[in-house]
């Protein structure tokens, strides 16, 4: 009720509007709610979400690489083609027993697919009569030359190595570096049966190629 002669003051249009900050806040909230709904329904375009999404299950195995145990070693230049044993021990009697079935990978050395040095060793014997031919397994590795190829098979892959050095050494003085600091390598070792008891032949090779196995 208005008293005569006293008009009620009228509010300006600007005074009836909410502050601009309220409009902006509401608009932002509505935008993100809409975007979230569209994303849930699969309607968000690539230029907004950065491209297609990739499930974590589609990524390679993360963390420490397990590596693959070697199963076979070949070198065509010396007619070498033998299975590789992988005893999980450093005990000499068990290693001696495994060597009767072929070359052996040393348990602390690298596996296929890992950086580091794979150490494989086997018997040599130049006796005229040997009942178990695995005592002659590495008879000819001393004949390998720089640049010759050695293949190690494991899983469904062939790992090809190139020989970089063949040398004679003394087991009482030699130390084989198994660390990854020298890259991805393969070392073969056997006795020099014509030398003294501690004499060894050592072959060093670098990884060059990994191929799908055809065997």
Tell me briefly what this model is:
By secondary structure, this protein is α+β, with helices and mostly antiparallel strands.
What topology does this entry show?
Blueprint (H helix, E strand, L loop, with lengths): L12 H4 L3 H22 L4 H4 L22 E4 L4 E4 L8 H8 L4 E2 L10 E6 L27 E6 L2 E14 L13 E8 L7 E14 L3
Parallel strand pairs: 4-7
Antiparallel strand pairs: 1-2, 1-5, 3-4, 5-6, 6-8, 7-8
Description of the structure:
With 215 residues, the chain is α+β, with helices and mostly antiparallel strands. It has two domains: 13-53, no CATH class; 72-212, Sortase (Sortase, Chain: A). Helix content is 18%, strand content 27%. The protein is built from four helices and eight strands; from the N terminus they run αααββαββββββ. An eight-stranded mixed β-sheet has the order 2-1-5-6-8-7-4-3. A hairpin with a 7-residue loop joins β7 (184-191) and β8.
């Amino acid at each position: 009720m208005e008293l005569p002669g006293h008009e009620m003051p009228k509010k300006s249009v600007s005074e009836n509007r909410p502050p601009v900050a309220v409009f902006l806040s509401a608009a932002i909230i509505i935008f993100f709610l809409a975007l979230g709904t569209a994303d849930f329904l699969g309607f968000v375009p690539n230029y907004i979400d950065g491209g297609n999404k990739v499930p974590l299950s589609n990524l390679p195995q993360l963390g420490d690489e397990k590596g693959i145990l070697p199963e076979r070693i070949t070198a065509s230049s010396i007619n070498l083609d033998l299975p590789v044993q992988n005893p999980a021990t450093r005990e000499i009697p068990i290693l001696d027993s495994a060597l009767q079935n072929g070359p052996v990978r040393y348990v602390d050395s690298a596996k296929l697919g890992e950086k580091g040095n794979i150490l494989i060793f086997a018997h040599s014997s130049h006796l005229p009569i040997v009942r178990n031919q695995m005592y002659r397994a590495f008879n000819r590795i001393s004949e390998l030359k720089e640049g010759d190829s050695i293949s190690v098979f494991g899983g469904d892959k062939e790992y090809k190595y190139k020989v970089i050095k063949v040398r004679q050494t003394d087991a009482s003085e030699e130390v084989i570096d198994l660390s990854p600091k020298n890259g991805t390598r393969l070392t073969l070792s056997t006795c020099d049966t014509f030398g003294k008891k501690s004499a060894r032949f050592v072959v060093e090779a670098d990884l060059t190629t990994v191929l799908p196995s055809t065997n």
